[in-house]
Structure formats: structure tokens, C-alpha cells
Amino acid sequence: MKRLMPLLLAAALVGGCRPHAPVAPTVAVAPDVHATAAPVAAAVAPPIAPTVSVLELAPPVSERPGYQRPLLIDFHTHLSLDGQERIQRIMRENGIELMINLSGGSYRRGPSQWLEAKILADTLGGRVLNFMNPDWSGFGDPDWAKREAGRLDEAVTRYEFRGLKIAKILGLGAIDERTGKLVAVDDPRIGPLWQKCADLGIPVTIHVADPRAFWWPLNPQNERWDELKVHPGWAYGPIPPELAAEVPPRLKPPSWPELLQAAERMYRANPRTTFVAVHFGNAAEDLDYVDGVLARNDNVYIDLAARIGEFGRHPAAKLRAFFTKWQDRIVFGTDIGIGSDFLMLGSNGAVEPQLPDVRPFYEAHFRFLETAQQQIAHPSPIQGNWKVDAIDLPAPILQKIYRDNAMRLLDRTQLKAFAARKLTDEKQDIGTPDDRQRLK
Ligand SMILES: [Zn+2]
Questions:
Q1: How much distance in Å is there from the Cα of 53 to the middle of ligand 1?
Q2: Is the Cβ–Cβ distance between 344 and 335 less than 8 Å?
Q3: Number of Cα atoms under 13 Å in the Cβ half of residue 300
Q4: Residue 56: what pLDDT?
Q5: Are 337 and 77 a contacting pair, CB within 8 Å?
Q6: How far is Cα 158 from Cα 176, in angstroms, rounded to an integer?
Q7: Separation of CA 428 and ligand 1 centre (Å)
């Protein structure tokens, strides 16, 4: 599994696509999937009928007296099929009704990765929804975006995927094979793929850039030293010789502001498409900037994943005002990664976390959002050796962030169908015999 998880996470990073193998069209296609042509943010979400398994949940009790937390949607997870038992346990123990798996995979290995993702969703009774990752190989070919849009259509209609996830490789690693240059985040040739998301009524979660300190010199004075010394390949500033050997050769990356500005140009150029800018709008360091992005772009949401430590450094009152202002555009997410013998909690250091660490990880999120405690540990101490002040959000805002905003971003009709569905053996009927063989 230690090999599989990085494979899944890196699916969008590496080239080498296979020919488009035919898949037996035996999975029913919900007729409403293509009818959702309006931006998904415009619709109203009816509640999901709770399933029996949901009623068995025993989440941690809030540290705010009398507060009853709703069932959560974790909008930012990375899941592997072989981790299904741990995923179920983690969902049950932390009050999570639905996980959005942003590592549904690209077409690089053919449809088998999508099949794995679908089997995971089916096995968990629809309590996981998968997002597709594009395959950047062949970029520069005039048909690249059309090819990926076609694959996305297949992932949505045949494998029940519910969104597209763009990794930070866009802007930092994906190569235009015609020119040998990095693909810019706002390259207009990606346009047909963004438009396909709008036509399908699915959101795009997008990771652009990384923490600002990753562009600073990599040395013990860098505030992210604990993290970067373990992952020197994440650093984009000057790297000391003893760590440089661990970093493969690469093109000079754009600056932090250049990447963020390109992202905003892309949001503006695609107003019909709904974007979830992950990691607190990709700029947790700059609250005013994220405020501006949300104000200027109605089609942008943000998630909280792996950045409480970073945005938690802003004064609590200012941050609380931000959450109040943008309460309809923020979704809860953690960046948890789960496989059979792999765990990631936002970000990992030299020592991998273990199952008993997961509940305190979620509790740290709850404590930050639900209480007014000061100078508390944030969920991923590897991401910064400092404390944060909690922001004590009112219950109606928590309801939106934990659940309602995510529901609005997803396809409600489909979700209701998922929630009502019993476990079936449908997985035996999809994919080619070859695909199923590969899964054994
Ligand atoms: Zn992530």
C-alpha cells in the first residue's frame, strides 16, 4: 500500500496514457447528470435521508456545552480501495457521513483506477464520492482538453464521479510537450475541460502553489523547516547542497504571486465553472487577498484543508469576521489520506501517524471552529511550530461549513440516490474482465 498511495496521489503528475480501452456500458447512467447545466452553486440542496449506518455514528462530543455537531462532509480526502475498513472506522468514529475522495485517479492506467474508486464508493454505500484527476501527458496536442473532457464525461456517467481535482502540478510541473515549458494555470487551452465541468454540473477543486514559505530559502530559519527538511522537493526557494541531491531536476517555478494571479485569471475566464480553491484559497497567509478573490469571483469556494495552522495565525476576531462574511463559500476538509497501511493527517513528517492519532486530528479541527480557546495546538503541528486561537463560530455557520455548502456543490439528486442505495454486487458488472482481473 505504501507504493499504491503515492501512485494514486501522483496519478495526475506522470505521463504515459494508454489507448482508451472500451468498457462494457453496464452501469446505469442517471438521466439528471447531464441536465445539470447551470453552475452548481445556484441550486438548493434538499437534505440526504440518513442511512442506517449513519445512525450508528458516535462522533466526538463538542467541547462547546450543548452544541450538537451535524454529520460532517469531509470535502478533501485521499482514499485507497484497500483502506476501506479504516475509512469506515474513521468515518464512524468522527461523525463523518460523506468523504470526497480527491484521488479518484486519472486515465493514465486505463479505467482500472476509476473502477477501484467506484468499488470503494459502492462498498461504502455511496458514503465516498470520487473526483477525477486529469492526465497531463500529451499536453500541447491540440486535442488534449477534448480528450480529458471526454474522459471526465466517462468518469462521471459510467463511474459516478462527482468532480474534478487539479493538483499543484498545474503551474509547477505539468509540461507543454510541444514547447517544453510549464503549463500555466490560466492556459486557455485547458478551457474545454473547465467548460465540461460546468456542463456536467460538477465542481473543480484546485490546488495552486503551496505555502508561501516554500518559496523562501530552505534552512532552519524557514518557518516550515520541520516539514521541508523531510520533503525538500516541495521547496521552491534556494536549497542547501546536502538536500538538493534529493530534488530531481525541474524547470524554474513561477513565484507565489504569479501562480495565484494566474489562478484568478482562470476563475474569471470561466464564470460558469465552480471552483473550490483548496487549502483556504491557496493563500492562507493572506486573509485580505482571499477575501478579494471571493469578492471578485462568485464561482469560487474555499476549503479549510491542512491550513488551520496557517490561517489560524490571523487574529481570531478578524478570522471570525471572515468566516461570517463568507459562511456560504467555505467547506470543511482535512486532507486526510487513508490506505490499508498508509495514513496522512494534513501533512506528514518523518514519522507516519497511526490510527489513534486520527480522532485527535479531527478534534483539533472541531476545537478550533467550535470553541474560544486560546493558544491551542493546530491539527498538523508538522506544518508550523506555533499555537493558534480558536474562533468560536455560531452553530448556523458551522452547519453550513460542516455540511450544507458541500451539499450545494454536489449533485443532490445523485446524492439522495447514493444514500438510499443498499450495498450491491454491482461492482461485479462494471469494467472489462481485464480490469476486474487487475483488481484481484
Ligand atoms: Zn489534498
A1: 26
A2: yes
A3: 25
A4: 54
A5: yes
A6: 29
A7: 30
Helix H or strand E segment including 413: helix 412-420
What grid cell was written down for 35?
441536465
Residue found under cell 522537493: 233
Query: Whole-angstrom Cα distance, residue 103 to residue 109?
Result: 14
Question: For residue 280, how far is its CA from the centre of ligand 1 (angstroms)?
Answer: 12
Q: Quote the longest CA-to-CA distance of the chain.
A: 60
Round to whole Å and give the CA distance between 165 and 133.
5
Identity of the amino acid at 345: L
Q: Which of 54-68, 292-306, 418-432 has the highest mean pLDDT?
A: 292-306
Instruction: List the shell of residues around ion ligand 1, using CB closer than 5 Å.
Output: 335
Rounded average pLDDT over 312-332? 98
Q: What is the CA(102)–ligand 1 centre distance, in A? A: 7
Alpha-helical runs (H) found in 185-328 = 191-200, 225-228, 241-244, 256-269, 278-281, 287-296, 308-311, 316-325
Distance of CA 246 to the CA centre of its chain: 27
Give mean pLDDT, residues 377-393. 90
Q: Give per-residue pLDDT as tens, 24-83.
A: 323 333 333 233 333 333 333 333 344 435 445 567 899 999 999 999 999 999 999 999
CA distance 164 to 203: 7
Residue ranges of domains in the chain, CATH in brackets: 4-14+31-439 (3.20.20.140)
Distance separating alpha carbons of residues 186 and 56, to the nearest angstrom: 45
Alpha-carbon distance of 120 to 52, in angstroms, equals 18
Task: Please name every residue paired with 216 in a beta bridge, in sequence order, or none if there are none.
Answer: none
- Exposure string of 40-52, with b = 16+ CB inside 10 Å and e = fewer, is bbebebeebeebe
The model's pLDDT over 87-137, given as tens digits with 9 standing for 90+, comes to 999 998 999 999 999 999 999 877 889 999 999 999 998 899 999 999 999
Distance CA 277, CA 243 (A): 30
Is the pLDDT at 12 greater than 60, yes or no? no
Q: Which amino acid would we find at residue 410?
A: L
CA of 275 to the centre of ligand 1 (A): 15
Q: How far apart are alpha carbons 195 and 214 in whole angstroms?
A: 32
Q: Which of 374, 369, 373, 375 is nearest to 387 (CA)?
A: 375
Task: Tell me what pLDDT residue 332 has.
Answer: 98
Q: For residues 113 and 158, give the distance between their C-alpha atoms in angstroms, rounded to a whole number.
A: 13
